[in-house]
Every structure is written in C-alpha cells, then in structure tokens.
Amino acid sequence: xxxxxxxxxxRAEWPNEDFVGAVPGAVVLLDGAGIPGAESLxxxxxAWYTHRLGGALLGHLSRGDGRDLAAxxxxxxxxxxxxxxxxCDIADPSSPQATVAxxxxxxxxxxWLLLADSFLVLDRADAGLQVVTDERExxxxxxxxxxxxxxxxxxxxxxxxxxxxxxxxxxxxNQPGGYWIAKDDPRAAWEAVTGSRALVGLDGVAxxxxxxxxxxxxxxxxxxxxxxxxxxxxxxxxxIARVRQVEAQGTAGVDAQFPDDATVVHCTHLPC
Length: 272
What we know:
The chain is α+β, with helices and mostly antiparallel strands. It contains six helices and ten strands. Helices cover 32% and strands 26% of the residues.
C-alpha cells in the first residue's frame, strides 16, 4: 500500500492540532479539538493529546494482532487518559479531545473506523466512490445552534444566545443521543462508525480532516469526485492548497475567516 499525506496548520502562530501517521497496512488521522482559554484544565494542550493518542494508536496497529479497531481505540484512549488524569481535569467538557479516522488492511479486506466529523472516501472501481463520515456531531451542532437563527451577529443578544448554544452542545458530548469523540472515556470507541469491504475492486482510499473537507462543504469549490481527481493530479498537498487558496481569497463566507488545520491522506496500490 502506497501512502501519501499532507497536513497544514490553520494559523501560523498556533500549533497544528491534527495528527497523521501510518504503519504498514494502516493509517491514523486525528483532528484535535478543545476550547480556547482552557489551559487551566489541561497543562498539555490539544496538540499534545492528538500526538499522544495518535502515537498510541499506531503502536497498537503495528502489532498486527487483528484486534477490532474499536478495541484498539478504547485501549489507546484509556492509556492517554491515565497519563494525565492526575494533573489535568480530563473530565471537563472543554478539555482536549479529538476526532478519529483509521483504516487498516486486514487479510483481504479494508477496515475503517470513524469517530466524529472526519471523512473517508472509497475509490471503488466497481461501483463509483463512497463517502463515509460520522454525522452525529454535525447534527447535534445544527440542532443546538437553532436558537441563533434571526439573532443579529455582533450584538449582546447574539453573544448570550451563542453561549447557551455552546453549553447545550457540550452537554451532548459522549452522551446517548448526542455525539461521540475521543477524550477521557474509552467507551466512546464502541460508538464509532465502523465498516469493511473487500480489497478487490478498490482503487484507493482517502481520509480528510474537517478542515480539508471544507473544499466540498461549506466552500462548495468541488465535489467528492473532484477531490479524487485532485488527489490523482496533485496529491494531498494539492487539496490543501486549494482550501488555502479559497480562504486567502476571502470568498467562501464566514468559515474562511477562521482557517482550520487541514490534513489529507491518500492510499493507493492496495494489496488484494
């Protein structure tokens, strides 16, 4: 399996909170998240969390013991939680957390796991592309943000309503009926979106963090077949360059004002 990857920090003055890495037959992509100003909760920070969790996942995947991807993730979440539970308030909703995307070649199949809003794109020669994501965080965010409709941006009323929306969203994190993300509770791993398919007829697979997938939505500058075309032509770095180009032009709406870390992985020449 050939693996090409690229990652880019959203802001030059801030560490890249994404993580990406590969071992033979497996790839891991994490998109870190945390609340600005929450340093008092965790002295390590989001980038530390994603790198420690990503490294632990790669270590377990490299053993090739055939354990379920969810079991591997649960173990890794528990290990990292144990590393800093004595010094940090890891149970606070604002402490470091991360989305998780993993793919693994196991025997004659490709297996995947997605937790929160990263994207998996399967390039299927026999049936066209297939896009897989975990939609629960997006759904929860949309529902919790509904009270903001019609409230004027920049007003005290907007700030008050937005604060209540954020509180409501945090209350749904790692809760039944809400959404799930890697944080302090290993049980979240068992709520991940998982699947597999035969390697035969699979030309490649791509993983994109939320910051990279913006090129499709909300920026609308291409579609998912266009992402695969761009990957074939200029690789993961080419996809990220297009994202940054849109943001630099300032023509993609409010999201372009807040560039996010962006990471893309493209796997080709899958064994079969």
